[in-house]
Input
Amino acid sequence: TFSGFVKGNYSEKQMPAFQVNLAVNNAMFKYPDLPTAVKNIQVDLLIDNKDGIIDNTLVNLKKLHLDFGNNPVDARLIVENLKNYKLDGNVRARLNLAELSTMFPMQGTTLKGLLSADVTAKGVYDATTKTIPASGTVNLKDFGYTTAGMPPLTLQEASASFDPKAIELSKLNGTIGRSDFMVNGKVENYIG
Output
């Protein structure tokens, strides 16, 4: 379902108030030549502006869910205004990357590996220090990527945890072509 309204006067200095509602329940899509569908798509979204001042727009993604085969992705996000971006949201995903090729055209490219992510954002975006109030973890295991014209990339394991002040990489080891590499480290003040 989709509904909305625009109400008020429009000028160079003023927009009318507006609202958009979008609800998607149990949707799916599938490429005709591929065997697996992206299914169980759920969306509940409200975009609301009561006074026509664009900075006062509320974006409330109450729910986003998709099943990539047997791999769920869930997210929600509230942005209270578009001036200082007060955020409250999270994303959780668990993906078997090898299964993505059964859902999306990837001719000449192969992927494999297990990706998991748990990311939360809560607080106010600080434009002065460019601080995003987000923290979380992303893990990748048994990753492989091959495509024409590039050496193959493999990662046995990779893990990253981050907060507004630092990103910490650990267990990042793998090969590019015939060259091995290993990375551990911490990056501070990565946005400023």
